[in-house]
Amino acid sequence: MERITVAPRADWRDRAEALGFSFHSLGGETYWTEDAAYRLTETEVERLEGATQALENTCLDFVDETVQRGDYDAYGYTDDACAMIEASWQRQDKNLYGRFDLVFGPDGQPKMLEYNADTPTALFEASVVQWDWLQSHFPAGDQFNSLHERLIDAWRHFGLFGHRLHFSCLRDNAEDKGTVDYIRQTATLAGLDTDHIFIEDIGWNGRRFVDLAEQPITRLFKLYPWEWLFTDAFAPHLRRAEMRFIEPAWKMLLSTKALLPLLWRRWPDHPHLLPASFDAGDMNGPLMRKPVHGREGEGVLRLLQGQAAPAETGDAGNFLADRFVYQAAIDMPCFDGRYPVLGSWVVASQASGLGIREDATPITGNSSRFVPHFFA
Asked: What is the pLDDT of residue 321?
């Protein structure tokens, strides 16, 4: 894997916006990168694809075992949340997508930093935008990217024909809105009846959730975390509402960093997992402290060997309390002062594509840039 310099296309902004990629710049900074690219080998791509599929299969096994045991203590979820998890898994509610954040380890095998299983972003740029870039720069090359076709095909197997599928996110987030618009487009291309409503506009009429036209919302794709839903005013209605969600409620078992120590406890020899624990005292060497519900690198801290862990606050019975997990630190590869994280996507639980984000520090944050990739 190497980082190479690439000449930006003179009209790249116009091309991006013509594709619908309006959030190529965020907060006054360029998010989409045109002056560099990552070149991978075919062997590296095969390893990434194999590791992604192995991790997804492991996660599905973990959900099944957890529901069979009914053991949700590590999460601190409410009784209603646990009941919804069980019901959605037993119904075999389908899931659409997820993103594993990976890095190549010293042994050449991809290692999992975390799993964005519920509300991952950076999908549109990984699917459509970097494919358009590839056709401009390296038309004879290839890319780990079958995302667009896989998404359209996945929607056809959700059993949603005859239902209106609402798509929702927060109103004032351009990246989330762009991601939702793209995913809605793939559903429309699959032949589904779709609509959009912002989270803030969803109402409750005493029996069911409704849109602004007072029409019932029976199927909802939400780019909005499950743990936030359970702190909203309408939370008491979630369990009894006649509404199915995408991502399904069983994804709550995979969508927090509590997953990291739970997977390691169950599969301590897994080739793609890093040692992790709820207790820093169980670990040796440099550690990464991660908040259970942190997002976009928020609250991630590197702890040196022998350094006392900061005092942990919050009520373990409150799933939004400030709790932490600890993961063995891994030396991040650095290219020209940039640290890339490999966002490896699954669609309908099948490994489907790669998007790379990089930062000037080893911790990928909200301002990290997206850099296209190819292999030859």
From this structure: 56
Give, in degrees to the nearest 5, the angle at Cα 249 between 169 and 145.
Answer: 65
The CA-atom distances, in angstroms, between 156 and each of 102, 151, 190, 239, 277 are 29, 9, 6, 26, 39
The token pair that represents 66 in the structure block? 């957890």
What pLDDT is attached to residue 307? 52
- From 87, 134, 189, 195, select the one nearest 373 (Cα to Cα): 134
What is the C-alpha separation between 177 and 168, in angstroms, rounded? Answer: 8
CB of 50 closer than 8 Å to CB of 19: no
Give the pLDDT confidence of 140-192 residue by residue, as tens digits. 999 999 999 999 999 999 999 999 999 999 999 989 999 999 999 999 999 99
Beta bridge partners of 104: 110
* Three-class SS of 270-291: CCCCCCEECCHHHCCCCEEEEE
Instruction: For 287-344, write each residue's pLDDT tens digit.
Output: 989 988 876 656 566 665 545 445 444 444 455 556 899 999 998 889 989 999 999 9
In terms of Cα–Cα distance, which of 317, 334, 290, 319 is closest to 2? Answer: 334
Q: What is the pLDDT of residues 230-250, one digit of tens each?
A: 999 999 999 988 899 999 999
Could you give the C-alpha distances from 10 to 7, 13, 16, 34, 128, in angstroms and in order? 9, 8, 12, 10, 19
**Coil, strand or helix at 327:** strand
Q: Which of 258, 261, 292 is nearest to 274 (CA)?
A: 261
Collect all residues with Cβ–Cβ distance below 8 Å to 2 and sequence separation of at least 6: 38, 39, 335
Half-sphere exposure at residue 273, Cβ-oriented, CA atoms within 13 angstroms:
22
Alpha helices (H) along the chain: 12-18, 42-69, 79-90, 123-124, 130-137, 147-155, 174-189, 226-229, 259-266
Residue whose C-alpha is closest to residue 272's, from 344, 202, 164, 218: 344
